[in-house]
Amino acid sequence: MPVNTGDEPPARKYHTAKLVDHRRVLVLAVAVISVALIPLALRVELDRTLKSAYVTSSDAYKVYRDFVRVFGDDEFIIVAIKTREGASDPAVLKYLSAITDELKELDEIATVISLSNLKFFQERKGIFSNYPLLLKTPDGWQLPDDATLARITKALPLMDYLLSRDKKTVGILIRLKPGWRFHPALGALQNRIKEIVASQLPANGQFSMTGASVIREEVQRLTVRTAVVYGILCTIVIGGICWYIFKSLRLALIILIVIGVAVEWVLGLMSAVNIPLNSTTSLSFGLIVVVSVSNIIHIITHYYQNLGTTTHKSEAVKLALRMIGRPCLMCTLTTAVAFATVMISSIPMVQQLGFVMTCGVLIAYILAMILTPAFLMAIKSVRVEAQEKAAADWITKIFRSLENVVFNRYKLCMVVSITFTLCMIAGIPFIHTDTQILHLFTDSSAVISDVRFVENNLIPVRSLELVIEGPDQVFKKPETWKKISVLDKTLSASPEVASVDSPLSLLENFHETISKGQKPSEMLFTDSRLLSQLFTVISFNAEGKDLLRRYVSPDYSRVHISVRIRNTATKSINEIIQAIETAANNVMRPEKVIVTGEQAVFAAQASQVVDSQVISLVLAFIGVTILLIIQLRSFSLGLISLIPNIPPVAVIFGMMGWLGIPLDNVTVFAAAIAIGLSVDDTIHYLTQLRREMTRSTDPHASIETCIRQSYQKTARAMISTSLTLFFGFLMLAFTPTKPAIYFGFLGAAAVFVALLGDLVLMQSVILSLGSVRRILNREIKTKSYQAPPLVNSNG
C-alpha cells in the first residue's frame, strides 16, 4: 500500500506523539551519549580475583579470612607428571630435577617444591638437620628405601602431592609471587610453565596442571568467551528471526541497531559503576538482546497494522506508539522488577547482574521508543506483498491451529494445563544446591580433566581446613595433643576423607628422630617439657618456623588440620562438613571447632542462595501483581492475569528437581526472571481484551467473540516475541559454562510454557469458569471507562 508522507491530518496529541515530532533532536541526543560512552564501554574489566563470587559480609567468609591471616592460604599450582617407569627410575628423577630447576629460574615464581629439592629433618652421621630426601648414587638420584619413605610420608603429608602411592606419578608444587596470583599475564605464565614441563617430559610421560590460580584463569577465559559467544549468537538468531517475521532485511537491521546501542550503553554503565565482567554479568549482553527485542517487534507490528487505517506514515507510527506505549512500559517494568528482586541476593555477582539487567531493560525500552519510530519514519515501508507473505507464514498457521483447538476443547486444555503444572510442582522437593567454583565447568572441559587426572593419579585437590581453638598456650599441654591423636584417627577412618594433614605427625617425626626411636611417641601426651623442646627445635631455622606456623598459631591457642576429601556422589559437601565438625566436637570438647576453607565458604553460601531464591520469588510476584493491577485498572483482573504465569515458574522448579539441575549463582534468578518475562504477553493480550470489550457496541456481545478478536490481533506478535526469547535463551546451550547452559534450557522452557499459558490456559480458564467470565463482565464491560478511539475523526 502506498503511504502518503505529506502533511498529516490534525491529530489528538498524546505524549508518545512527541517521540515522533521531536525525533531528530532525540536521535541526536542518543548519538551524543553513545559516542561519550565508547571510552567507558572499552574499559570494562574482568573480575580476576573472583571476589564477586564470595559473600564477603558472611560469617563463613570472615572466619576464612581470619584463618588465612593466621595460617596462610597455601595456594599452589600442582603439576602432576605420570610415567611408565615412575619415580623409581633415576632418569625420571633427572627429568624432574631439570624441570624444577628451570621453573625456579622464572622471576614470577616464589617457590618450587618437588622430590628433587625437598628436604627433611633427619640425623646423618650424628648431625641433626634438614637433608635432601633423594639419595645420590653413581647412577643418579634415587628414592630412599620404602620404610624411610613411609616414615617421611607420614611426617610430611605434603608428600602426598609429590609422589603417588604406586610411585608412577610425581608432583611439583609451584607458589607464585603475590603480585602474580591475579596478574593479567597469568595465562601466559601458565602456558610458559606447561612449555617447560612438556620440553623435559619423557617420551612416554603425560602431565596435567591444576590449582586455584589455574581455575581462576580458566574462569576468566570462559567469562569472556561466554559474553562474546552468547552476544554474537543472540544477535545472529534474533536478526534472522526478525527478518523472517517481517520479511524485511531493513527492519531486521533496525532491530539490531537499536539493541546494539542498548548493549553499548550497558557496557558504559558497568564501567562507570565499577561492575566487573564475571560469570553472571557476562550473560547480560545476550540477555539484553533477548529481552529488549519484544518492544521493538510490537512497535513495528502495530505500525504496519495501522498503515491499513491511515495513509500517513507519521500518523501510523503515532497510533502504534499510542496503542502499545503503556503496555510496553508495563512489560518493561515487570521485567525490571523481576531483575531488581534478584539484587536481594547476598552474592555480589548475582546482585551485579540484577542491577545491570534492571538498568539494561529500562535503557532498551527508552532507546526502542526513541530510535524505532525515527527509523520507521526514515525508511520506506515494507511492500504489501511482503506483508501478505508474512500473514500467511507458519507463525500465522500455528496460532490459527491453536485457536481452533482452544476454542473447541477449552475444558480439556485447562485440565491438561493444570495436570502438567502439578507434575512440575511435584519435583520441587528434589532440588539441590551447588555453588562450588568447579560447577562452572562442563564435564568435558580441560579444567575438569586436569583435576580428575591429578586426583586419580596423585591425591584429591579439594580440602577442608579444620581449626581447633582454645585458651592461650593450650596446645603446649600434652592432654590436648592426645585428643588430637584420637581426632586424626577418627577423621582418617571416614570414607570421604582421603588424608589428614596434621601437626601431630610432624611432632612425632621430630621426636622419633631426636630420640632415635628409643622413646615412645606416647610421651607427647604426658610430657609438657618434651612438647616445648620440640617446638623450640622445629623453630631453629626459617624453614622450620614457616612449617610450624602453617599448623600452630603464635600464641599456641589454635591448631590447623587440613582434611583432604574425596569427590563422592553419596554425600554432599554440606554433609561432609557436618560430619567432620561433629566428629571434631565430640573429641575436642571443650575446645572450639571451626571448619573453614574455600569449600566451606561456598557450601555456607548454598543456604543463602535458597533463601534469596524464595525472597526474590515472593517479591517478584508482589511487584508484578501490583503493576498488572495498575495496567489493567482492576484488582481482580490483576490476580486473574497471574493464572497463565504460574506454569512457567512451576516448569523451572520442576525441571530443576526432576532433571537434577542444581540451584546455583546463575539458576538462582531463573524463576524470578521467568515471572517478569512471562507476564509480558499477558499484559498485551489482556490490554487488547479490555479494549475489545469496552469498545463493543453490542451490550449482549459474547465474551467468546471478544476473546477471539483479541486473540487474532495479538497472537502473532506474542508468538513472534516468544520465538525470539525462546531461541535467545536456547543459545546459552552453546556457551562453555554449565550454569549458563542450565539457565538457557530453563529460560527457554519457561518462555515456551508461558506462551502456551497465554494462548491456551488463559482462554481455557475464561471460557471454562463462569466466575471468571462474571468478573470480566463486572470489571470491564460494566465500568464507565471508555477507551479513546484508535483513529481520530479526521484520520
TrEMBL record:
- The SSD domain extends over 251-378
Q: How does it sit in the membrane?
A: Multi-pass membrane protein
PROSITE patterns in the cross-refs? SSD (PS50156)
Q: Name one Pfam family in it.
A: MMPL
Keywords for the protein's UniProt record, in alphabetical order = Cell membrane, Membrane, Transmembrane, Transmembrane helix
**What main location does UniProt list?**
membrane
Q: What does UniProt give as GO cellular component?
A: plasma membrane
| Cell compartments where the protein resides | Cell membrane
Looking at the UniProt entry, the stretches that span the membrane are 25-42, 227-246, 253-277, 283-304, 324-347, 353-379, 410-431, 614-632, 639-661, 667-686, 717-734, 740-769
Judging by the UniProt lineage, the source's domain of life is Bacteria
Q: What is this protein called?
A: SSD domain-containing protein
Q: What is the originating organism of this protein?
A: Desulfomonile tiedjei
- Organism phylogeny: Bacteria, Pseudomonadati, Thermodesulfobacteriota, Desulfomonilia, Desulfomonilales
